[in-house]
């Protein structure tokens, strides 16, 4: 399977509107499951459509393997049907008058694949996706999840070098979405297909992707593995967009943040010295621990007095709402809490779980920030 490389890709629709995609440099490696993640209007679907050839970039170039399929400077454009890609839309786009079997082998018929090979490939992919028993039915006779499998089978039957998926699970209910996530994971492992998947759902991205490209306002914010995106967000946008409940943000530059901001600033200064440009601290709810006895706080951890103002069960975990000097902080635990609403307690966080950001929201490396501050002096 080929790599997909985007270099300086730009998309502007004109009319004075901001660019949908701005100077995008991105590489999707062979066999990778890449998720383009971001809110509505961030440019992720436009990027997918440019890879597919359904949209023309207004700048930059796109390569699939060694072949340039789009280059604005060189005037190169390869039409979608010659890019050897499979595309599954948010709408399944099945032919209502064709049986499931004929929907699946539709692409093979267009390519004039010999009948024996066509039947074998159709049967194989239908067996793997568990839809063989529906081969004589029509799309209207299937559930949403079954129709999604048919749409995937139709693309996989033609053995595309790359599979492009544009929010294909958004029309399914919660249970079917969970089943189809597991199905997509299995498809990727079994077929070894390079997949580019567009979604605004962070949990889809976290559970499916080998690499996630987080986008905002047409720009790439961070590229990394799910663990890297979650544990070491490159900026505050990524930190606040990924995670549920959202990350706790302590604004160090705002007086109204009160005691918590002062305590956090003092702790960071004692640990790292004066950090140039430090603006805020982000703490994932999972990293916030709660205890009623200060003796239980590990040495070296950041700690603060807190009062429990809410305990919210979510089924497999509990969200604990804390009041710290008038500032709300959320903690998440998988263990049933032994505390009660109104209890006075302590929260504590290991130093490695403090995400530091500068005034512009960019992640700070304490060592680099310290060096910069010393150089300025």
Automatic annotation (TrEMBL):
Keyword flag Transferase: no
Domain ABC transporter residue range list: 4-242
Pfam families: ABC_tran, TOBE_2
Enzyme class: hydrolase
Listed EC numbers: 3.6.3.-
UniProt xrefs under PROSITE patterns: ABC_TRANSPORTER_1, ABC_TRANSPORTER_2
SMART domains: AAA (SM00382)
Positions in coiled-coil regions: none
One annotated Gene Ontology cellular component of this protein: ATP-binding cassette (ABC) transporter complex, substrate-binding subunit-containing
Keyword Secreted: no
Keywords carried by this UniProt record: ATP-binding, Cell membrane, Hydrolase, Membrane, Nucleotide-binding, Translocase, Transport
GO molecular function, one term: ABC-type transporter activity
Protein's name according to its UniProt entry: Trehalose import ATP-binding protein SugC
Gene behind the chain: sugC_2
């Amino acid at each position: 399977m080929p790599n997909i490389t985007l270099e300086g890709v730009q998309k502007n629709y004109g009319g004075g509107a901001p660019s949908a995609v701005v100077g995008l440099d991105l590489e999707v490696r062979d066999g990778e499951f890449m998720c383009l993640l971001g809110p509505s209007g961030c440019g992720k679907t436009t990027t997918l459509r440019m890879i597919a050839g359904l949209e023309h970039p207004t700048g930059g170039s796109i390569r699939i393997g060694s072949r340039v399929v789009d280059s604005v400077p060189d005037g190169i454009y390869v039409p979608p049907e010659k890019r050897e890609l499979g595309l599954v839309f948010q709408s399944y786009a099945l032919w209502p008058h064709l049986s499931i079997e004929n929907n699946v082998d539709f692409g093979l018929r267009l390519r004039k694949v010999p009948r024996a090979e066509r039947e074998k490939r159709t049967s194989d992919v239908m067996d793997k996706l568990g839809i063989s028993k529906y081969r004589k039915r029509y799309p209207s006779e299937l559930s949403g999840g079954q129709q999604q499998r048919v749409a995937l089978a139709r693309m996989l039957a033609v053995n595309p070098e790359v599979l492009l998926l544009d929010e294909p699970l958004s029309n399914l209910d919660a249970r079917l979405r969970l089943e189809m996530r597991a199905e997509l994971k299995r498809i990727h492992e079994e077929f070894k297909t390079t997949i580019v998947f567009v979604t605004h759902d962070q949990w889809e991205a976290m559970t499916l992707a080998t690499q996630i490209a987080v986008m905002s306002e047409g720009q790439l914010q961070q590229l990394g593995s799910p663990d890297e995106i979650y544990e070491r967000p490159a900026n505050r946008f990524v930190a606040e967009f990924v995670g549920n409940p959202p990350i706790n943000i302590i604004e160090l530059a705002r007086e109204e943040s009160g005691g918590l901001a002062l305590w956090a600033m003092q702790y960071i200064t004692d640990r790292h010295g004066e950090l140039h440009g430090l603006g805020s601290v982000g703490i994932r709810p999972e990293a916030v621990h709660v205890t009623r006895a200060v003796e239980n706080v590990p040495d070296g951890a950041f700690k603060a007095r807190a009062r429990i103002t809410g305990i919210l069960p979510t089924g497999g975990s509990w969200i604990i709402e804390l009041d710290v000097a008038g500032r709300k902080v959320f903690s998440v635990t998988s263990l049933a809490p032994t505390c009660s609403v109104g209890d006075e307690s302590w929260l504590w966080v290991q130093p490695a779980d403090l995400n530091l950001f500068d005034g512009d929201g960019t992640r700070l490396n304490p060592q680099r920030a310290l060096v910069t501050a010393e150089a300025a002096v």
